[in-house]
């Protein structure tokens, strides 16, 4: 373990840091914070209200904003939710500017907001930002404003390459709790897990499972009701079940009993946490070859298919089912443990504090 540090973790203002996690960003922040505390670091998290009570969380100051009648008459008026989030992060960054040197040794930004990046150069404490997404305009413009003075990590080599035109970054794969995501017997239905939204394309998982002739269970939050009602509900039947938004414990049981996990991104997945979670349960993965998934799903852990090709994904499902579950679990233990992830971040923090890593 590196020397004990005072670490500020900046998280999402929109989704609390608690189970069931809204996404990989929230899961990373939760597990990173718990492991850092266990290693003796002094951790403070700034996150959305409603986060896990056992974590050292300070709610981001999201004050409801109601514009005046005069302001609402402006046809170009910014949405009030955007303003509330903007002012919450601005308040935090100004507080860090005034008091950060006395309170923290390093700031780790895991938010998707532009201000922690754009203002990082002004802080009296070194800051690192983890890139969780492909380039998006509001973050890319903030990186440009940063002008190379900040430090960056990325959740995969793919995501690091995607940002290379704007900034260099160190790839650090997200870890999963391989104790909680424990191996199961397999042999059951195929499982698709994640947010049921168009960019995750669970409807293609349904179609591919039927091509392969295997039953499928879908698990996750239906964040887009229109997509669910038009693309998912009409495809449900005796061989396809929707289990709802499960707790982690329930999802571990489901994945551990699954014959194969199906991953169907319709976009370039920055990491692929659901694949790593399935692998930790010993469950092989059949996935579209997009984004970072080729980094996550090696030949011993699954099979890849041409993006968007339902027939080829059906082939991948049939082949993945036959893989050795012990080898799949071993692939997760060698690449995706929380200890490995925290070791990597500790090295980044130490390099920033000592000046060995540019900030």
What's the CATH architecture of the largest domain? 3-Layer(aba) Sandwich
Order of helices and strands: EHEEHHEHEHEHEEHEHEHEHEHEHHH
Instruction: Report the end-to-end length measured between terminal Cα atoms.
Output: 22 Å
CATH fold node name of the largest domain: Rossmann fold
Helix content: 25-40%
Shape category: globular
List how many beta strands DSSP finds: 13
Kindly report the average pLDDT value: 92
Which structural class should the secondary elements be placed in? Answer: alpha/beta
Helix segment count? 14
Largest sheet: spatial strand order: 3-2-1-4-5-6-7
For the record, what CATH class of the largest domain applies?
Alpha Beta
How many domains is the backbone divided into?
A: 2
The largest sheet, given as strand count, sense and whether it forms a barrel, is: 7 strands, parallel
- From the alpha carbons, calculate the radius of gyration and give it in angstroms: 21 Å
Low-confidence stretches: none
Q: CATH homologous superfamily of the largest domain - what is it?
A: Glycogen Phosphorylase B
Portion of residues in beta strands equals 5-15%
